[in-house]
User: What shape does this take?
Amino acid sequence: MKALDELTFDNRFARLGDAFSTHVLPEPLDAPRLVVASEAAMALLDLDPAVAQTPVFAELFGGHKLWAEAEPRAMVYSGHQFGGYTPQLGDGRGLLLGEVYNEAGEHWDLHLKGAGMTPYSRMGDGRAVLRSSIREFLASEALHALGIPSSRALCVIGSDTPVWREKQERGAMVLRMAHSHIRFGHFEYFYYTKKPEQQALLAEHVLNLHYPECREQPEPYLAMFREIVERNAELIAKWQAYGFCHGVMNTDNMSILGITFDFGPFAFLDDFDAHFICNHSDHEGRYSFSNQVPIGQWNLSALAQALTPFISVDALKEALGLYLPLYQANYLDLMRRRLGLTTAEDDDQHLVERLLKLMQNSGVDYTLFFRRLGDESAALAVTRLRDDFVDLAGFDAWAEQYKARVARDGDYGEEQRRARMHAVNPLYILRNYLAQNAIAAAESGDYSEVRRLHEVLSRPFEEQAGMEQYAQRPPDWGKHLEISCSS
Ligand code: AMP
Ligand code: MG
Assistant: This one.
């Protein structure tokens, strides 16, 4: 276990030089204080969890102090936002403080979001508010606990610093961790600004540090792109299987590592709704729940375009062709497991589709349905769940097919079925209204609800005593909360 001053830095991205990022110091928050810390994330840095309670922790992650070996940098990138190209974005309010490596030899970027203005702030104030910082913290740690690749969050630091959004709020910082903060938009920036040398350096950097196994392949860059395609297909299959809606899948928010990245107006589905749009500024529904699948491919095509200096167009097209079949295979595999199936049959896709259509028509809670389906034998479970459906004949027909399918799958005891299904069907997810409750309390200075929610969501598959209120459908007020893009 390490103390805070024992972290070891190795700032590989900073060493790429000034064409890639700019040195900027964090702008401290007034009266910084710990809102919440993730022990699991601290463990990735070998940090003793007790250090979160020390004043220096809030000073470091509230922008007041820096390690001597930290090299705070704002990264430059660009990206396609809602389908249109924005030539220059960059870290407008976040700083890569440096890269820390742990005792296992893993490197972790420490990125302080909300750290003040940078040369890339454009019209923004460089700040992040408490509300959005808590949402990012809870979501990244909750996704990780669900087994969905994501950037991580070490802590949220609150403050007295006033920040103006639709109304006056308080500034906060979230310390984000990832093996890399390189986005699709980094490659787009050097491609569209016609800087082939820097682009080659960036590609080399990503290949060496993050896809070293691809070096062994005859065409390393192509192998790397293929791997990025695969990881994205797997990631988005998980989002779809678990009802996660990212909300702003611009290419500057897509990680080169295929992890969930840059949290804004995201939401988990309550009722199943394929057309759900979580970002209320997304008027056309470009990033609606079901559109995440084709948008994943669109974003990969944008990256492919930026990689044309390194890889032939034909090879890129072929690699892009892997996306949909891989997505489908991964998604179906996950949905089979959610249904408690251990074997594959040709008609399973239809079984899933028919169920989702019924859920859509009846507004059935997506998370609780699967959890309850595993509570008992298939026959008993469908009898109990029937009440949630409006189209009873439709549901009965599906239930008959499902029971027959389960019978063909094998004769497992109820205990085994429950254990297997509950291990993949969470009881607790980050519902918007739960986040909202925790945020409201935090905004009035009570951080206990954020901490409790974080705790509950860190073991989403395990029933936790006394936590029933976190496993309920939203109350009426919490059903269709509009989450603004402002953060
Ligand atoms: P996002 O929508 O958070 O992915 O941000 C898109 C771009 O706007 C990125 O370049 C951000 O750094 C920048 N940005 C967002 N909010 C702010 C802010 N409050 N101040 C400065 N830049 C910001
Ligand atoms: Mg972003």
Notes: The mean pLDDT is 97.
